[in-house]
Amino acid sequence: MRSRAGHRHQLKKSGVKAMFGRLSIAVIVLVICVISLLSTIKSTSRSFSQSEIKVDNLWNTASSGEWRPSSAPRTAWPPPSKGTNGYLRVRCNGGLNQQRSAICNAVLAARIMNATLVLPELDANSFWHDDSGFRGIYDVEHFIKSLRYDVKIVERIPEIRKNGKIKKIKAFQIRPPRDAPISWYTTFASEKMKEHSAIYLTPFSHRLAEEIDNPEYQRLRCRVNYHAL
Ligand SMILES: *[C@@H]1O[C@H](CO)[C@@H](O)[C@H](O)[C@H]1NC(C)=O
């Protein structure tokens, strides 16, 4: 009797075991189905929202997360002085982005020297074999106007009347040292400028140090790059 009951008990036990096995497989299959269903719903809703993107919004400025534009002066920044120490001519060289940063440096160099900047000359031949000058690439009026509180800029070196003759000021040519410090501009270059009324810096790429311990000078370079050009 005892063994029979035990046998029945065993049968019952194995039946329960098998049921649990089947049940757990069913549960696993169900879970997989639910997950795959959820993921398809998610991906379809994503593709739907993609088609909802407004193209105009794509070009909006991204949220800055409390960062402020850094190009406006934050300390006393007087407009360029009435007088001028002379004219600064530069000849940019290299690729277009290199020449663009050279223009930023030329504006800063003119500011440092209290000079009038002559519209920077671009090296048209070296890379793109196209003789578009500054005017062909940038908006000259906008460039001069947007920097009016920073430097005086003229399109070309002026003519002077000397002994009844009209002559162009001849700029004294200098090859600036690479990554020249501010002090080179306030001493050597400024002296030559006062001596000759105009200097011509060529070549002019990487001729002013990138690292300058003066935030206002760095902001001026930003104003040129992001607002004037
Ligand atoms: C430029 O002008 C400022 C302000 O008038 C003056 O402090 C500075 O020494 C001048 N720099 C040169 C190189 O003349």
TrEMBL record:
Topology of the protein relative to the lipid bilayer: Single-pass type II membrane protein
GO cellular component, one term: trans-Golgi network
Main location: membrane
GO BP annotation list: fucose metabolic process
InterPro entries: GDP-Fuc_O-FucTrfase
Domain of life assignment: Eukaryota
Residues passing through the membrane, by range: 20-41
Keyword line: Carbohydrate metabolism, Fucose metabolism, Glycoprotein, Glycosyltransferase, Membrane, Signal-anchor, Transferase, Transmembrane, Transmembrane helix
UniProt pathway annotation: Glycan metabolism
One Pfam family in the UniProt entry: O-FucT
Gene Ontology MF term list: glycosyltransferase activity
Subcellular location: Membrane
Entry similarity comment: Belongs to the glycosyltransferase GT106 family.
Name this protein carries in UniProt: O-fucosyltransferase family protein
Organism: Olea europaea subsp. europaea
Classification lineage: Eukaryota, Viridiplantae, Streptophyta, Embryophyta, Tracheophyta
